[in-house]
Amino acid sequence: MPGERARVPEVGAGWGVFTRLACGMAALGVCVGAVFPYFAELLQVPAEYTRAPAFRIACLGAGLVLGGANWLLTRRVIGTRLRLLATRLTDVAETVGSSLAAGSSAPLPRADLTLPVGAPDDLARTASAFNAMLAALDRERRFRSVVHSTSDVILLIDPTGEISFVSDSVRDLLGWPAEDLLGAPPQHLIHSDDLPLLVGEGGTGFDLSSDGLPQVLVLRVRHRDGGWRYLEVTSSDRRADPVIGAVLLTARDVTERMELQRQLTHQATHDELTSLPNRAAALAHGTELLDARRGEDQVAVVLLDLDRFKEVNDTLGHGYGDRLLAQVGPRLRPLVRDVDLVARLGGDEFLLVLPEMCPTGARAVAERIRAALGEPFLVDGLVLDVDASLGVAVSDDGPTDIDALLRRADIAMYTAKERQSGVEVYDPAADGHDRSRLVLLTEFRRALAEGHLVLHYQPQVSLETGSVVGVEALVRWVHADRGLLSPAEFLPAVERTGLIEPLTDRVLDLALAQARAWADQGLVVPVAVNLSARSVHLPGLPDRVLSRLADHGVPAGLLRLELTESALLAEPEAAQLVLERLHAAGVRLSIDDFGTGYSSMGHLKLLPVDELKIDRSYIAEMTGSAGDAALVRSVVDLGRELGLTVVAEGVEDPATAEALADLRCDVAQGYLFSRPLPADELTGWLTGQHARAVAAGR
Fold it and tell me: Is residue 422 part of a domain?
């Protein structure tokens, strides 16, 4: 019955040890009683006494009593200790057996089972040996408990390629009972596409050569429910170990991590609204095609912009506009080849990248697309009519980089808009048609020289303490006629020219001078400055930054440089060298607008960055969109796993700030705390914050 002590099984049908001992003691007593009368005669006891029957009977009785007393004493002293040893052994067997049957790994109750050692005799040595065995069992049980309770799965693959041991956690991870896998080859659980990573050239068994198994690899392993899990497997060859004698594999579930990487990769390369490739993916694909050209191969791009789309947004609202845009991709895709790329650049602009396409063929594609877009769109029961203007540019003898080709398509598209022709192919004679852009750049060059650029600063606040942990410097142009211009009104044009580098230097000088001024007032405030994609690839950037830090007397740790994911695409090796030099000097580095670019998780781990800034487009909708909330949570978790500070941009309301704090996001930035302010206004704001912090500390 449960709870009853296990009975010690009978050793055999013969006499027991103490029964034989009793017989021996009785025989010894009889011998002593029989010999004693003769011994008494030697002691000169009169013969009439020693030979008397009563004396002889008394001697025999005394011998028997003496033998019985010896037997009782031996049974009590030795038998008690032997019974205690047998009981303890039974308890050990019962505890080990019941716990194994129940799958339990509770440690043995050593304090209850150890034997007293006592005097240094044979029984004491037996007790010591039992206690040592108990300690060894306890250590083994503790090790078994650790192995079976860990969330990772531990396997041993014997020299025949079969599983000789698997921890119980395999049931939680893959749904398989451990006993179902013992003695089986592991190949039947591994995805066929991943098997070449593990099996030898014959493809029939594990490659157990010294350099066969990689030390760390990621595999798809079949769950008992038929699905697949991504496992990160670490291998160690322990066949030379006489105790193990097998290849040791440790596996952990990284399915969520791989899914997050897939989501981030898709999010970084695809437009959320239309599910089409985004600008970064289109540019990367165009660069690959241009780099891979052979002979007279040509690459064409078609840039299209929807006419009268603004009227839809203004009249019916952005919801109708979004649903209209979502129908553009499905309408374009059947009109192009499988090798062609259809992407959304943003707003109502779309791009087609056409490999091996001549100007005539590209124009024909553009004409078909314009005709298809001229057909009415049905949105929520309303029939909407829009038109499109398309610009075509072909690489032929022209540019060898995608940006230049896209600029030509942009010029052709605006020519089509001006002429209301619908489709235009790039014509060098029309390249100077955009006079407003030329005027803007001329005025900007003058503003740069005359000091008409100023910085506004937006504070960044710790969500845990509420204190200011830094500010972001945002450039503004004080235009003589148009007033204060935001970066969106001039940076896109400036970034395409050589003016971007003088602008970067000017912003660095202004930001560092202000950081020095704040430090002199007792306000130690780190300042963040944005870098352009072009600046990140210039090998001279670290020297320019460090010389300005020295000129203004600002420690490198007070400067943070922000760069976008897309800035790392064109020349990742050059960018890596520049960033490593800056990081080694103590300058903090941040990836801005994370989630909108093209970086992979593997690439991110290699970058010497300190911070991730989640793009405001995800923050704005996270309290109302489960998808955005999940993505924000994933990025926060990713940042914490990589040891990076995570900053949320565009925090506009307390509910969003509270949701971010619940996700353990580190820092927030947005109009909830403060709009971007001129330096003098922000100084007063910071001083007030500092005074409140001091008062709270008291």
Answer: yes
